[in-house]
Amino acid sequence: ISRGPYNLSTTTGTLYNDYILSAAAPISITQPATTLAGNGFALHFPTTGTGLITLSNSATVTTSNIVLNNFNKNAITYGTSASMSFGTNTQLRLFDDVAISGADKNWNFTGTNGSITGSGCRVNFTGSNNITVGAGNTVTVRDVHFKGLGISNGIFSINATGTLILEQCTVELATNYTHS
Prior knowledge:
By secondary structure, this protein is mainly beta. It has strands at about 5-10, 10-15, 20, 25-30, 35, 40-45, 55, 60-65, 65-70, 75-80, 85, 90-95, 100, 105-110, 115, 120-125, 130-135, 140, 145-150, 155-160, 165, 170-175. The mean pLDDT is about 90.
């Protein structure tokens, strides 16, 4: 349930119920280091729309204990040097195919128990961006078709102590690829 614009200017923003992003209910984050804590609730993305989450210049946001339902990368606008990472218990749920180009941000998983559930959706890499799994973290990816993985296109960047689990996924390579 959304209640209008949400301006987050403190170090922690907490959801106490589901939040539906829309032009009438955007989220603006202005704090340099912010945690968006979901308490297990969902942040619902619309299928279309841009600028529904705005990160000001140098804002760094880490999500935790949240479901990003119908995750739509185009709904997020990044200021200069702004970034978002997916922290502990962050679930990305995809309901549409996603194209990740060289202009897009990496999907950085920095907390334990992250997941991507694809519902059969395609994640198409057309640039050098990647899905990053940080030190000591585990990310489980379910029912996703990855396309375009290769040396110059998107890859999985996995820390030596990180774990990536692929369940019921397909991977379509752009070129020969060896993970080292």
